[in-house]
């Protein structure tokens, strides 16, 4: 395929309906911004995307488990060393729990370095009789409820790129520069062990790991894998002008890759088969995820497979189910059965967050930790009954001690929500709740094997 023809196919989405796109004031400003992005260095490389695809192929074969998580919506002010380290530290702790207690290799994918845009149920927000555009994430507009802040500003796409670059550089430094060494397992927990039941439980596991490492070292074994981790970035490919501007033709293969992240996914609101997002994703060679809610039909799932992975490449396509705790046991089985009957190589991941959101009497949007756990349990139960592989979890969490989701081992009640409700969009698990969940998922995984 020539570069010219590949470029033409990459723009085919422009002729199709594109849901959840902001209304920009000035098309010329958008063109200037995307032209600048098109000349910017890649955030990730095609070879790294292919490596993640190989890891996800292990998941398809039942040989690995995905831990995908991070912020609901990243903010520009959150692209600091402390904030990035805290999220990464939580992800590493969860991965250690899953790897050691679940006895399974874990593919670590962050909802980081690009999750700056969010779909919204309504295009506008009304407060006190004033109507302004809805907050669509820092890549589009600001959180403050003022006309200046809520203007859809295409220059923010450039800031999203630069903040993504900063975050990725920090993640690479932390994961390759010694911070992710397994011998640091205690250090990740120093600020947490005394104040949290989850931290104390993790510390016991860290001591077990210490003994195992000492035994292996005494035997002359010190694998390189103990001293760093593979970490991959992902986000929802929502803003198509941004994703298209960051798509490059790989010099090795002549194939197009979206170099904004290793993996991108299509949301529940944008997965229309005749829509622009599916068309765009079908043209790039990154690993692709698709969110599937409780109303999706098995035929729709099969049609998505035909569009996004017609060659049946393992690791290319991941279905991320977001059914809700009360519906997953009824909605998921027929979906998995029909996909399995067609021998489609799909990785199945559970997003137990988005189907379990409700509004507390205080007006805070929240989630019950017990509902999150119950949806994951239903996900495992369905896979165990069908003899298929529960491939991973996809969660929204933060490394901070927020009060956004109720429940957990160090219980948060609805009256606590106001204390540290800091999310820019949806409620996230805090660090203790995330570790609690990791221990529970590890146990579920061991029972499912």
Automatic annotation (TrEMBL):
Binding site for Mn(2+): 72, 354, 396, 426
Pathway membership, UniProt: Metabolic intermediate biosynthesis; chorismate biosynthesis; chorismate from D-erythrose 4-phosphate and phosphoenolpyruvate: step 1/7
Keyword terms of this UniProt record: Amino-acid biosynthesis, Aromatic amino acid biosynthesis, Cadmium, Cobalt, Manganese, Transferase
Cofactor binding: number and manner: Binds 1 divalent cation per subunit. The enzyme is active with manganese, cobalt or cadmium ions.
SUPFAM superfamilies associated with the record: Aldolase (SSF51569)
Domain of life: Bacteria
Cofactor: Mn(2+); Co(2+); Cd(2+)
Signal peptide segment: none
Positions of phosphoenolpyruvate binding: 111, 268-269, 291, 322
Enzyme Commission designation: 2.5.1.54
Catalyzed reaction equations: D-erythrose 4-phosphate + phosphoenolpyruvate + H2O = 7-phospho-2-dehydro-3-deoxy-D-arabino-heptonate + phosphate
GO MF annotation list: 3-deoxy-7-phosphoheptulonate synthase activity
One BP term from GO: chorismate biosynthetic process
Similarity-based family: Belongs to the class-II DAHP synthase family.
Protein name listed in UniProt: Phospho-2-dehydro-3-deoxyheptonate aldolase
